[in-house]
User: Fold this.
Amino acid sequence: MAISVLELEEGKTAKIIGIQGGHGMQNQLRSIGILEGKDIVVVTHHPFKGPVVVKIDRKMISLGRGLASRIMVEMTS
Amino acid sequence: MGNPNVGKSVVFSRLTGTHVITSNFPGTTVDYSQGATCLGRERVFIIDAPGTYSLDPTNPAEEVSLRILNEADIVVNVIDATNLERNLILTLELLSRNVPLLVVLNLWDEAAHTGIEIDVSRLQELLGVPVIPTVAVTGEGIAELASYFSQDVPVPEQKNYSDQEKWVMIGQITREVQTITHRHHTLRDLISDITIKPITGLPVAVLVILVSLWTVIFIGETCITYLTDPLFELYLPIITQLSDFIGPGFVQQVLIGQMVNGGIDFEQSMGILTTGLYVPFGIVLPYVIVFYILAALLEDSGYLPRLATLTDTFFHRLGMHGYGIVPVFLGLGCNVPGILATRVLETRKQRFIAATLIAISIPCMAKTAMIFGTIGQFGFLYILLVIAVLAVVYITIGMILSRVIHGECPEIFLEIPPYRTPRLNMVLKKTWMRLVAFIAEAVPYLFLGVLLVNILYATGFLAWLGTVLAPLIVSWLGLPKEASGALLTGFLRKDLAIGMLLPLDMTPQQMVVAVTTLTMYFPCAGAFAVLYRELGFSGMIKSVIVMATTAFFVGGIMRFILIGI
Assistant:
């Protein structure tokens, strides 16, 4: 089942299956390492519509909610 | 060139001997720096480009990078060995550019430390360009890199990949050259988790900020008592002699100022060579030094991006994002570097909001000294009141501006680097460079402001304007009419205002109104100059209108609440 990173629970791992948005948006996210096929873990959701912190390949990245909602993932387990 | 936060600037300063600011924080280099080095007989010019993730620019810093790339003879691509896969994206794009390319594999020690092994010779084969592993902070590998400049660096075979092919290629290369040994969770990971999660991270952040401010005040005060005050004690007889030599008149009025109880008083005389020297060097500089050392420690350790994430929720409401904490933080030292740092924000709208808010309600060390100097005598609660008002104003004006101004507000999108132990020489070097910048960029304007005000004062213009505006100050702000002179002088010289407000014998409430208004309504001449540089003429004018309106409005409200009608 495909959900966005925004809906992914803290501490859960999922596989990135797609990035919604235009070419620019896709490249922006990919260039920092958010690629299809990668495993992504949500480190923490900040409350009150705050940013989402994720981990990919041991690298931590802070994302605004708008960006997080565009990253589609599939639960691996 | 290379991705943000991979150590380009360190490699650059190692190559050229030039000092540039580096941080464990993406986006430190927004302007490019240029330096030269001699190899044999030839002089080589080296340019340090701002960090970029790709050649498809998404922000001003990346556009600068692209422009530099188009003019380069040899491109040195610095990549982060701990993050090979992602860094290779830019490398592949550079390979298609038809320029001689050198790849520097930096942070080599950190990669080894975290259990990442990279087969350098294999990587060299696959990329078809020289690959040099380095540890730039210690200088390892830099000599080898420099030796390539005198050789003919081959132009790599041009390969054009489609986006899809690029990702496939990168995956293949990474798999082939990189071996990762499994690593147990370390203490560093634990600290990293604690400081990024809101429940534990926010208390830690509050603690870090409070401890930092306390350290600045404590060490700063100690420096003043035991170092700068004794120095000015030695300076007093010299300047007194000079004053006697000049004799009374216009020149003495401007240079030395007024005699207080028959002698020179560094806080109240107000001459350029007395108060004008004492305030920036005797009072502000000690605090600024301590502050910059702390700022450098926070940056180099990698804490700032975490702080940015924690505060993003807040700054996002004000039209900015978590990066907004950086200019605020630096602005507490001196507004000039604070306003310059607004460049870390992407859009014009965000930069306007950030810069205007700093000028209105982030008190620099000089303003803080003024607040403490005038209100401290009435007790800590009154100081707290001023700080609370400034905070409320920051939030309110930010919310209003973010709704009123047109333009985009991009969200936070930021890599959080691992914690690194700050290196003492780097911290000291950075502090030194910021101090030099502070003295070179802020102090001259300060003097200019002093000169201007003293001339206006000596010619009687200020007194005249004070009388004209006095009714407004008396009826709207509820202050004695003599205070109008202080408020006007404070236009360019906040430092003077202390000396002018103190003898007026005002109630604590009146003092709070006067000082808050004075803090908000106009920045010093130095901040004014950078506002013009960063926002342009029309931006600066808009910013000043916001400031003046806010100060006047808030001052009036405070008067009605505190003093009554």
Summary: Chain A is about 15% helix and 40% strand. Chain A has one domain: 2-75. The helical segments of chain A are 23-31, 65-68. The CA atoms of residues 46 and 52 of chain A lie 6 Å apart.
